[in-house]
Write a structure and sequence with these properties.
The structure is a single chain. This protein has 134 residues and is mostly helical. It has one domain. The chain is built from seven helices and two strands, in the order αββαααααα. Strands 1-2 form a two-stranded antiparallel ribbon. Helix 1 runs antiparallel to helix 6 and helix 3 packs across helix 6. The radius of gyration is 14 Å and the shape is globular.
Amino acid sequence: MLTLDPEKVCFIIVKTREFETMENPIEQVYEPEPAEDSFRRVNGEEGTDPSFDEVKGLIDDLNWDHQCELVALAWLGRGDYGRDDWDDALKIANERHNERTAEYLLGMPLLADFLEEGLSQFDLGCADFEMGHL
């Protein structure tokens, strides 16, 4: 069961799309396990991109449980887990939680798409939210 407010996820999606269109993206380097993905910033330094900083702050401000749900939702959307595996994804996200959740998530290429796909697996979407915030 998703307890994270879908509107918060949609707001993160909208802001992440803004970040993803910037010239200084974060480049993802994939490892075998989803929680072991690593990342590095290319063509810029963290702290110089207001969109990145805003999204990072939004994620950092979420409580532990909601950060874990956001990670599990991204994994669901990325195809690492199916809807029936939600409890497993959430359990692993909780086990691997650390203070770098925002950086981990923002290091995923297509994060907004993954979160949107994850929401769709709960029959939720952002179409109405995006229309009201564009």
